[in-house]
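DM from R.C. (forwarded with permission)

"hey, sorry to bug you on a friday — could you get me a structure for this? deadline for the figure draft is monday and I only need the backbone to look sensible"
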Amino acid sequence: MKRISSLGVLVSTALLLLPNITAGQPLAADQPASSLQAVTPGESAAEQEPLAEGPVSAPSADAPPPQSDESASASEGSPDSDEGVPVRSDQPGVAPLEATPDEQSEEDGDRKADAPEESSPEEPIPGEVDWNGLIERSPAFLALMHHAAVHLPIALWLFGAFFVVLGVVAPSLRNQIPAACLIGGALSSVFAAASGWWYAEHEWGEPWDGATHLRDIDWSEQLTQHRWAGVALAIASCVLSLVAIISLARGSFRLGILWRIGLIGLALAVAWEGHIGGELIHGKGFLEEAYQAWINPDAP
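My reply, with the result:
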C-alpha cells in the first residue's frame, strides 16, 4: 500500500509539472529534479535514464518545432516528397527538374519568338548618295576624269594661239579671244594637273609622297616628266592670265606682247605634254609605228 500511494503521489506531481516543462518554464528553485524520478511498473532500473539536475533550459527561438510521429509519417507518405512522385518545379525553395530535349527545344522556340527581332543591315540603294567617306573616295573618282579634263586646256590654248597669229593681220582679233582662251585654259589646267596626280597614284601606284623629295626624283621616267610638266604648265598659265588681265585693264602694249607670246609657248608645250601622256597610255613610239604603217606597211 505504501508503494502504491507513493506511486500515485509521483504521478500526480508529474501531471502537474508537465505543462510547465512543455511550455519551456524552468522548475522552481526549491523543487529538485530528482524528486520527479520514479520507477514505473514494468521497467527495470537499468532502462531508466536519470533526469539532469538543475533547471530545464528553454528551447531556442530558431529551433524548429518538434515533429510528432504522425506528422513525420505523413510527410514520408506525401506525394510531394523526394521519393516516389517527382517534385513540382513551381514549389518555392525546390530545385526544378531538368527539362527533356523536346521541352528544351519548345522553350528555346518560345524565347526566340518573344525576343525582339534584330534589325538586319540595310542594303545600299542604287543611286543613293553614301555621305560617309565621300570626300575620301573623291580622288579615286576624279582620277578617272583626267583623260577627259586634259582636252579642254589643250584645245583652248591651241585655239587662242591661232588667234594670236591671226591677230597679226587682223589686230581686232588679237586681244579678247586669245585672252579668254588663255584664262579658260588656265582654270581647266589646274583640275587636269590635279586629276593627273591622282591618276598616277591610284592607277600607276605612284603616290604623292613619292615625288616630294626633288633629289630622289628620276627625271628620265616618262611618268615623272609628264606629271611635273603638267604642274608647270598650270602654274605658268595662271601667271600669264593675271598678266593678260592687267594688260587689258591698263592697255599696256608691252604686257600684251608678253602674254601673247606666252600663250603661243603654252600651246607648243601642251602639245609635247599631250604626246608624253599618249605614250604612257598607248606605248612609247606609237606615233612612229602608226606613221610607218601608213607610208610603208610592208617595211619591217
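R.C.: lifesaver. The CA atoms of residues 254 and 298 lie 54 Å apart.
me: no worries. The longest helix spans residues 253-282.
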